[in-house]
Amino acid sequence: MRNKILEALYANKGNYVSGEILKEKLGISRTAVWKHIKILQDQGYNIQTAPRKGYVLFEADDKLLSKEIESLLWGHTMGRELIVFDSIDSTNTYGKNNADHLMDGTIILSEEQLAGRGRRGKDWSSPKGTGIWMSMVLKPDIPPTEGVKTTQIAAAAVCKAIRDLTGLDALIKWPNDIVVNGRKVCGILTEMAGQLNKIDYIVVGIGINVNNTEFPEGISAVATSLQIEYGKKIDRKELIVRIIKNFEALYHSYIENLNLTEVVAIVRDYSAVIGKEIKVIHGTSERIVTVHDIDEEGFLIVESGDGKREVIFSGEVSIRGKNGY
Ligand code: BTX
Questions:
Q1: SS3 for 255-313, per residue?
Q2: pTM for the complete prediction?
Q3: What range(s) does the BPL/LPL catalytic domain occupy (predicted)?
């Protein structure tokens, strides 16, 4: 019940909601509403009351409080188990190490990561209180070969959430980055374990630079944050909830019929690579190709100088550009 009250107050953040409306909406007495509000206030929620106006919720600060996020995700399967750390080595490492006993759809968040990871052992800078450092634990009953496609689902979910919330022209740099104005705001790391014909778990890690105002020297030329591009601080909780809701919708329609059509439409519409020359790096070999399209499976169709087309399934793709990124 308290989650429902919080949900109603969040939906009207900063504006009063009358006791009468809450009573009607929730089917409980005004006294019961008042008692729940008291408990929420004791739990630290900044809820003010005014005679004849009702109740209003003000944001305390930008801290990621699990109760707030839970209330915003009420009724959703993704995030029904939510774990929020103040500090951790890596949310993906935690997800992998505890996958056995974590429920399908568990979301792990941390205010900071001390050993955030990118692909192939690279570091992911995750300073405290600035970004979204999040992992989703999934246990779908789909063939292991299909598991890699969750990266595209996550990319579509994040890109759309950023665009809807900020209006920024966020683009997907296949396979696992989101860029704004040519710089990286988000990276996705998908890790999977299973047997020949069964996935044990997939951990999809999403790192987003949200309110960072500076970056370590090594990445400052390639990285940016939403705050830098948007010019204003962004509510991380709101972005998290949008991403999870987008992901849930796309992911469920995918695992039910293995159809990626909606995801591919988003990934194509907002592609940073279609029509561009890119450098494909496989181990130590590098070559320049032009991206022709993204196919129905979410893979890249590229064309080499002699007009020959081929499909790229994964691997490191680097766009040639002014910043080398
Ligand atoms: P990636 O291998 O594509 O990118 C890693 C590279 O990106 C680094 O080598 C560095 O050059 C650059 N980089 C590092 N930190 C940042 C940053 N904050 N912003 C922009 N560029 C950066 C991308 O791997 C996948 C990243 C996933 C991160 C999430 S966070 C939650 C989860 N936990 C975890 O340890 N990783 C994932």
A1: HHHCCCHHHHHHHHHCECCCCCEEEEEECCEEEEEEEEEECCCCCEEEECCCCCEEEEC
A2: 0.84
A3: 67-255
